Amino acid sequence: MPPLQRLARPFRSARTWIALGVLAPIGMLAASGLMLADLRKDAWDKAEQTSKNLVQVLERDIARNVEMYDLSIQAAVDNLRAPGLPGLTPELRQLILFDRAATARDMGVMIVIDERGDIVADIAAVPPRKGNYLDREYFQVHRARAGLGLYVGRPIVSRLTGERMLPFSRRINKPDGTFGGVVLGSMKLSYFAHLFSQIDLGRDSAINLYLSDGTRIMRHPYDDADIGVNIAGTQTFQGFMRDASGSFVHVSARDGIERHYTYTRVGGLPLILNVALSTRTIEAEWRAKAIVIGDIVLVLCGLTIALSLLFGRELRRREAMQAELERLSLTDALTGLPNRRAFENAGAQAWDAARRSDKPLSLLIVDADHFKRFNDRYGHQTGDDVLRGLARRLSASVHRPQDLVCRVGGEEFAFLLPDTDEAGACRIAEKVHAEVSALAVGSAGIGAGAVTVSIGLAAAVPASTEITALNDLYRLADEALYEAKAGGRNQTHCAKPHDPAVAPLKHALRLMR
C-alpha cells in the first residue's frame, strides 16, 4: 500500500473522527485556559504596577509638603532665639517668626505656645488669638521628652477654626535647656481628601493614610466615621508593619472586601500610605473578556463536537453500508448462505492454514438429485423453497464455527471442513443425508424423503500430498460427486487421487440432474 494511503487510512474510520472531535475541543479549551490565565496575570501585573506608581506619586507629594511645613516650624523655633525679639512690636515679631509659606492653601494654624500652654504668637492674627493647649497630647509629649524632634500627632479638631487637622509640632527649649513651650503647625485634613479624590480607583477600592500606631488619618472615599479610628490590631495593619513598603492581598476588617494592598512609609515620618484595589475591580475587565472568550470557545467546541459526531455517524452509516454490501457480495440472496466468492476466499485461507499447520482439510460437494423435476412439476417458486429448505438442513449438519456451508451455484452446495480428515467428513456427509431426509415443503405437497442429495467427498493434507491447490481438491470432490450420481444418487462417494478419470460421464450426468 502506498505511504499516502497508509497515512490516510485511519482518517476513514468513524472512531478516528469522533476521537478528533473530542480531542480538538479539549485542545481548544486548554489553549483558551492558558490564554485566560495569562490575561489574568497581566491584569494583576497592571494593577500592581499602577498601585506602586500611585503610592510613589502620593508619597512624594505628602512628604514634600510636610517637609516644607516642618521647615517653617523649625524656622519659628530658631527665630525665637533671635536677640531682641521680645522688645519688638507684635507685627515685627510675627514677620520674623513665621515663614509666609506656612500660609499656603490647606495649611492650618501655626502658633507658638509657651510653657503654660497659652498662645504667645499666631501666624494668622496680631495680637494672637487666645487659647490654652495644656491638655493637648502633643504639648504633654514635648514637655515630657526633650530632643523628640518633629512630632506628628493624632487628627484633632482645631479650637481656633473648628476644622479637622493633623498637628505637627516641635519643642521650644529655654537657654538653660528646660521646657519653654511648643511651636505647632497643622495641615488641614482637606488637603489629603483633595489629593486622594483626584484618583478614581474603581468600585470598592480605597486610599488610606495611617499613623504608625494604627490611627487612620484619612480615607478615600471619605467617611467622617473613619477618621481617627485605630486599626492596629487588625491583620491588615500588621501586614503594613512588616516592611517599609510592599504589597499583599487580604480581606478588609472594615467591610469584609478582599483587596490588593500596596503600601509604603511616607519619607522618614511615622505615616503609612496605602492604595487598596478591590480584587473584583482588578479582575473585572479580565472577567468580562473571559466570559466572552469562554462563550465563544464553548460554542465552537459544541459545534466541533456536534459536527464530529454527525460526521462520525455518517462514516459509521457508510461503513455499515459498505459492510452490508460486502456481506451481500459474499452472500447468496436466495438461501442466505455464503456464495461462491465467499467460498473461494475462505477456501484459500483454509488451504494456506492447513498447509502451514500440516492438518487435513476436507471438502464436500452436495448436489440436489433430480432438481429439474421439481422446477418443471411445481414451478420455480417451489424450487426456490426447496433450495431454501436444503440450505437450512445443510447448515444444521455442522456446528463448529470454522466449518463453512456455501451455495456455489444452482442446486450445488459445498462444505469446507478445516482440520477434518476423511472419516470425519464421512460422518458429516451421513448427517447431511439424515437432515435432508426430513426435508418437506408442505405448501407444495412435497413430503419428507422426496428430496435427496448426492455428495462428493475429498480430503487431503496439503503439506504431504500431490494436491497443490484448493482447485485440485475441488476437482476431486466434483469427480466424486459424479461417481455418486452414477452410482444411483442419494449417496456419498469419497474421491481417490488415483481413481480413473470420470470426465466423460460429467456432461451426460449434468443433463440428468
Structure explained in plain terms:
The chain is an alpha+beta fold. It has two domains: 10-327, 2-Layer Sandwich (Beta-Lactamase); 340-512, Reverse transcriptase/Diguanylate cyclase domain (Alpha-Beta Plaits, 2-Layer Sandwich), CATH 3.30.70.270. It is built from 13 helices and 16 strands. The strands form three sheets. Strands 1, 2, 3, 4, 5 and 6 form a six-stranded antiparallel sheet that branches. Strands 8-7-11-10-9 form a five-stranded antiparallel sheet. Strands 13-14-12-15-16 form a five-stranded mixed sheet, with helices on both faces. Strand 1 and strand 2 (119-122) form a beta hairpin. Helix 2 (14-79) runs antiparallel to helix 7 (279-329), helix 9 crosses helix 10 (380-395) and helix 12 (470-486) crosses helix 13. The longest helix is centred in the first third of the chain and has 66 residues, at 14-79.
